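thread: overnight batch results

M.L. [08:02]
morning all. the overnight job finished for the chain we discussed friday. pasting input first so we're all looking at the same thing
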Amino acid sequence: MSNRRPPPAPPSTVDATGRSAPPPARPPDPPVAGRDGGVTAVTRALQVLAAFALGESHLSLAELSRRCALHKTTVLRLARTLAQSGYLVQREDGDWRLGPAAGWLGARYQAGFDVQNVLEPALRALTQASGESAAFYVREGDVRTCLVRVEGPQALRHHARMGEGLPLDKGSPGRVILAFSGAPGADYEQIRQRGYHWSIGEREQGVATVSAPVFGLHWRLLGSVCISGPASRLPPDKLESLAQTVVSAATQLSYALAGSAATPAPLATRASHWHP
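M.L. [08:03]
and the structure it wrote out:
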């Protein structure tokens, strides 16, 4: 015969009438954390939002499930939760599209960069001086993002999508950011010595660009400004002749973002950060 005793019953309480009341309810479990300390549900919800590529107006539940590598029921639960806050909207045919809250989030992100007051006028002036499209790129982790772009007057021009993540090591805007962030190597040292970099077909065939670094307060690297166009119109000698125009625009933009008209300090090689 076993001497083991059954586990004690949970304590009960007695209400005002003397009757036994059930034990207090167990508090809810804390959110499940991922391996890196993040909340798994939040990470999965962000996966759903990130599944939409540029130019895609809507996606089916099955496609969202495939892109996120999650079960349909999980994706549906996440999508409905996001829809409650306006980040997703379900169409009449059952597909999902990004909602107005996602648009406002992007607008608030861009509004933090002084776009209207500083960047757009500077790029517009550069476009007028060069006759080509001008853009401003910032570093976001391991990619570069086109934050602001002003199209050139030419009918044939290079088109870039704002907000699209592009490689840092391909194309002059990213290479300039890497160079002035202290990337090692003879090529990057040469970019630092010149103060600019041009490339033809490095990231996209038939596209030529020339870029220069932009600094902010205390001359901290913020990003790079560039002009771009078809390689047929921008051969190497043309890019070289436009390089100083771009450098001049980058210097003026640095003055504006740094809030100072003082002579720039020697070009630093610090990590690139936005938010001047």
